[in-house]
Design a protein that fits this description.
mainly alpha, 77% helix, globular
Length: 120
């Protein structure tokens, strides 16, 4: 679901334009670059590919999600294939999008309220 919601977030016109998503990904990679020496070993090996292929931006596209799901399978010992997940993603796309649209505003609201606690 994390990967699926990343897709809908990348497409969410209330959160990003194409240009602002590009800027967000550039800024995110620049921030992460400052902490590469602190990455867990597995993420350290994966990060150069993530950055070079701009996974964060490519979540916007269904083929980016397909590649991401395949990557999850490669890294997870308990999964054997990603075709079923990608098939279900496409088959239930509109339903998943509706669930994201219900969930994300509430998540954002809760996060903003949580962060306000640190401003005081």
């Amino acid at each position: 679901m994390d990967v699926v919601y990343d897709h809908f977030l990348a497409l969410d016109e209330n959160e990003f334009t194409d240009e602002s998503l590009k800027a967000f990904t550039i800024n995110t990679y620049a921030l992460l670059d400052q902490f590469t020496d602190q990455f867990p070993e597995k993420f350290s090996r994966m990060y150069p590919y993530m950055k070079a292929q701009n996974w964060l931006y490519n979540y916007r596209y269904r083929q980016g999600i397909e590649k991401s799901l395949a990557g999850v399978v490669r890294r997870a010992k308990y999964l054997e294939e990603s075709d079923t997940a990608y098939f279900l993603f496409n088959e239930h796309y509109d339903q998943l999008k509706s669930l994201y649209q219900l969930f994300f505003p509430e998540l954002k609201h809760m996060t903003v309220n949580f962060l306000k606690q640190f401003d005081h």
